[in-house]
Each structure stands twice: as C-alpha cells, then as structure tokens.
Amino acid sequence: MRRRLFLCGCTAAACTATVPSARAALPPIPMDRHEAYMRLAIAEAKGNPRYPFGAVIVRPGSGGSGGEVMARGVNDSAANPILHGEIACLNDYVRRHGNAGWADTVLYTTGEPCSMCMSALMWAGIGGVVFASSIEGITRAGIGQIAITARAVADATPFWRGLLLGGVLAAETDRMFLERKR
Ligand SMILES: [Zn+2]
DSSP state, 64? Predict the structure, then answer.
C-alpha cells in the first residue's frame, strides 16, 4: 500500500504576501502533534460506524505543546446530506466561538475533504487542513467519492494559502474505513 504525505508547497514569504493573517498565525506543528490531533478525529469517527468520518478543529499550541480543541464533528449524512464530518465540525465551531478566529486553527479529519467540505473550509479561511486517508483510500473501502482532490480545490482558491497535509495516520484510517460496518 502506498503511503503519501504531501505539503503545501508555498513559502512563508509568498503566503504572507497574499494573505497576511492566514499562514502567519499558525505556529510550526511537529508530526507527533499532528498525529495526536488526528487521534482525536479518529475518536470522533467512532460515532459513525458505517461512515467513520470524524473531525476536530484545534488551535495548536506553540513549541510542540498541546493545543486547544475548539470543535468536533462526525458524519451525520443520514440526517442531512451536507453533514459530512467537516461541515458538522465547522457548525460546532461557529456555535461555540462565532464566525471568527479561523486563521489560528487547523481542522483534522479522518478522510480527505470532499470538494464541498474543502470549499467550505476555504470560505472559512481556516489556517490549515490535515487529513488521514486519501480519496483513493476511501474509495477502496467502497465509499463513493467525487474525484476532486483537496489539493485541487486549494489550488483553485487564490485567496487561501494555508497548510494542507495528507496521509497522517493513513494506514490506521485506511484500515478503519475497510473494516467499517456495512
Ligand atoms: Zn465532504
């Protein structure tokens, strides 16, 4: 199985020139913190055994210290077709914190955001998006996907220059999707 990790290729200077607040607000996040935050998203995903798409929005701590969990969400598309984990999490964030402070936050999600969710995250102006399983990995588990990558949506969004990272704990979430309740 291929494991992929891909990062936003833009430099800090290019980012800050375009969007002053989006990238500058985020402290560097070491990989072990990414993994710790992803484990929180995986815990959320347990709330939907058929479609284990879970998400958390975190305000990362500086210097590798623990961050603050700002919002949580799990797929509830049985109730509402747009309630993917990411949208549920965005809604939870707004309920708790209002429509503010996005640039300081990172969303962690067990599956690569679909084009709907990624667009919503772009509109929010979130500081970063980190996912585990790719669209490819989710499709292998028999879940239909729209074949537009999160990277493609980000690249098509001239006003967003945040962090985009995929493949974090993907071996674990690929297995979770394959072994989901059918
Ligand atoms: Zn989605």
Answer: T
pLDDT value of position 18 = 40
Q: Tokens 């939907």 appear where? A: 48
CA of 12 to the centre of ligand 1 (A): 28
Compute the distance between CA of residue 54 and CA of residue 73 in angstroms, rounded to an integer: 6
Give me ligand 1 centre to Cα 25, in Å: 25
pLDDT, tens digit, for every residue of 23-81?
557 889 999 999 999 999 999 999 999 999 999 999 997 655 678 999 999 999 999 99
Dump strand ranges (E) for 47-89. Answer: 54-59, 68-74
**pLDDT at res. 24:** 57
Distance 63 CA to ligand 1 centre (A): 31
Q: DSSP label at 10?
A: -
Stated pTM of the model: 0.87
Coil, strand or helix at 6: strand
Tokens 């974090």 label which residue? 168
Q: Rounded distance, CA 157 to CA 123, Å? A: 9
* Dihedral sign computed on CA atoms, order 34, 38, 40, 41: positive
Q: Is 88 left (phi over 0), alpha (psi -120 to 50) or beta?
A: alpha
